[in-house]
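Q: What residues go here?
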């Protein structure tokens, strides 16, 4: 049965009956059925000007727009792309399971089946404003000047084998959440809290409050966090390596 994973860390599978046959295969929708599916799921086509050729392209698109639904080989098999780590793309495959991987450089080959023909990729974007969100900029109505959030404050999408969202606030406050932010402000109920410190030229360290069952606080050291970067990598003293990307809203 086709089950796609949405929500905070994309850990909760949701059935999509419009795409499911009784034998477990996936339908190819068209016409009214396709429009109904997109409307019911709050989907729109990925904007044609959003590039997806490189790891950085896909990472930026995921950061700005959230998970991307694709059909492999232009056919019936549907997966949900959720993250990029290094040169590997992670996707939830309803026929196999969550967090499957493939090399990013094979992404478009898999999508086309080698034939160069691809169907439209879909994202959840009820406001249909994805291109503006992809730019990750804010226009202040008072002066009409386009500005970006001050670095590194704001939201970051973090991958360490599962998806997290970090909020870095003024006063060096750090907060983590498993739920994607619905507003630019701090989360109302963070999973954990801590402190972040930036050291020139390119080290950002987050020290988290010690969690139950651990012998010491978790310290994550982002070693390539140059000022104004939108992607950075870290090592943890307790857990797996991390990749963080600016989460634009």
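A:
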């Amino acid at each position: 049965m086709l089950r796609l994973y949405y929500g905070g860390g994309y850990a909760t599978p949701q059935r999509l009956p419009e795409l499911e046959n009784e034998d477990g295969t996936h339908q190819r929708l068209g016409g009214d059925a396709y429009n109904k599916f997109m409307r019911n799921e709050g989907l729109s086509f990925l904007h044609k000007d959003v590039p997806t050729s490189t790891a950085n392209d896909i990472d930026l698109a995921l950061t700005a727009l959230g998970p991307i639904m694709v059909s492999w080989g232009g056919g019936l098999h549907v997966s949900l792309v959720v993250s990029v780590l290094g040169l590997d793309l992670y996707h939830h495959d309803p026929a196999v399971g969550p967090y499957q991987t493939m090399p990013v450089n094979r992404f478009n080959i898999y999508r086309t089946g080698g034939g160069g023909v691809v169907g439209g990729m879909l994202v959840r974007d009820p406001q249909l404003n994805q291109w503006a969100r992809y730019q990750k900029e804010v226009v202040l109505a008072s002066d009409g000047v386009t500005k970006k959030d001050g670095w590194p404050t704001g939201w970051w999408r973090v991958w360490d084998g599962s998806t997290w969202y970090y909020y870095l606030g003024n006063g060096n406050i750090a907060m983590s959440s498993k739920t994607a932010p619905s507003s630019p402000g701090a989360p109302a109920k963070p999973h954990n809290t801590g402190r972040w410190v930036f050291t020139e030229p390119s080290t950002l360290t987050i020290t988290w409050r010690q969690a139950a069952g651990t012998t010491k606080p978790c310290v994550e050291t982002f070693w390539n966090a140059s000022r104004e970067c939108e992607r950075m990598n870290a090592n943890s003293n307790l857990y797996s390596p991390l990749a963080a990307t600016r989460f634009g809203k």
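A: Context that may help when evaluating the design: The radius of gyration is 19 Å. The first strand starts at residue 3 and ends at 6.
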